[in-house]
Amino acid sequence: MPLSSFLIYFALPILGTALYIIGIESFYSHRMNAFATSFRTALKSRAFVLGSSKVPRARLFSTAEGSERGGSVIHVTGKTFKDSVLDSKIPTIVDFHADWCGPCRMLSPILESAVKEDGRVNMAKVDTETEHELALQYGITSLPTVISFVNGEVSESFIGFKNRDFLAGFIDKIAK
Questions:
Q1: Which of 15, 109, 120, 163 could form a disulfide with 70 if both were Cys (CB 3.0 to 4.6 A apart)?
Q2: Which residue has better confidence, 48 or 118?
Q3: For this structure, is 11 an active site residue?
């Protein structure tokens, strides 16, 4: 192979790539340093520190005696399920869902708006990806699964996507 071919096909591309990388690094280094500094600051802030008193807690329905009202939508965990659902004086609809579930993402906004408009029931959302124990405890095998609780007992349930008319009837049935 002649020297000119070697330079054209091997040496110049390697040299060009090296110069390109050096140029890009020097150009973006100040931006990357600023990002790294802001990221470190965010990690050190109290909002991201586990166990911080500033970490938001799950809101319970029964925060004070006699203050429960219908139309609330909250996310519950295994720790807050008893207080928020089983001990609630208001009938509660529990939506067992997952972020990757298409029908869950379709049902959730319709169910939330129906609960808020009706105002006689509350809604609790349980992410089955993080709350495996609750899903097992209530025999969740398909998503979305919606279970209603009245006075701490399972009342009605359905599986899969349903339309607004069905949901209105479902709410009427458990709100009596």
A1: 120
A2: 118
A3: no
